[in-house]
What does this fold into?
Amino acid sequence: MDTKPTEISSSYMFGGYNKRYKHFSPKLGCSMTFHIYFPPSPSSPSHKFPVLYRLSGLTCSDENFIIKSGAQRAASNFGIALIAPDTSPRGLNVEGEADSWDFGVGAGFYLNATQDKWKNWPMYDYVVKELPAFLAENFPQLDTSKVSISGHSMGGHGALTIYLKNLDKYKSVSAFAPIANPINCPWGQKAFTNYLGENRAEWEEYDATCLVSKFNNVPASILIDQGEDDKFLKDQLLPGNFQEACKKYNVPLLLRLHPGYDHSYYFISTFIDDHISHHAQALRL
It folds into this structure.
């Protein structure tokens, strides 16, 4: 078992390196891949880089954000390491895991599945606990005390829920077009029914719009960017519901709506520098 990270690839970019690794995850029971962008190293050998976790959306792997977003330019300027995990376990051959694009492989929804069939889908624990511990043990150049989190679509849902439930772990959060109220949209209802069963109280534990009522001592403003021409806006993403909940519980939120933009990486790459700057400010860089 590859209990230590195995480097798969390395590419030089904006003075730093995109590096892809694989390791065995005891939590998930399979090998997982992840990317790290290491910004240019300063002269001090003891320097540690603050960390921004970036969670991807449905059908994605750890590669999409690293290849398409252009986030490395700003990350290089601010000296932030980018961590891009995969979106689900792979290679477990669970019946039905690849039958649809919005559930199973590539669609872990960053929750801990409670249904026995999907027992190897505890992606919440992987992202919040196992992967950070693995990184701290194997990459001493990362400052695991200075961490923020961001995501897109399903990954935006993951970032928001993980942040709200772990305000002591993360300095800030941002999201592009997040699934902001999954208990009330088809994607979320399908995933939650299969992963969590029929108990809607368990669903609410992974719904950002519900969580703001319980975890509202938010120290930094939440940043969300949403394209107004996103075809998923009205029936799947529901940012207005999250905005209403934040207003009700006095949670600081900056929700920016952008005419003409859709759900794609063209949209993400246009505004990604603002997100890196948002996190740099919270990380006090």
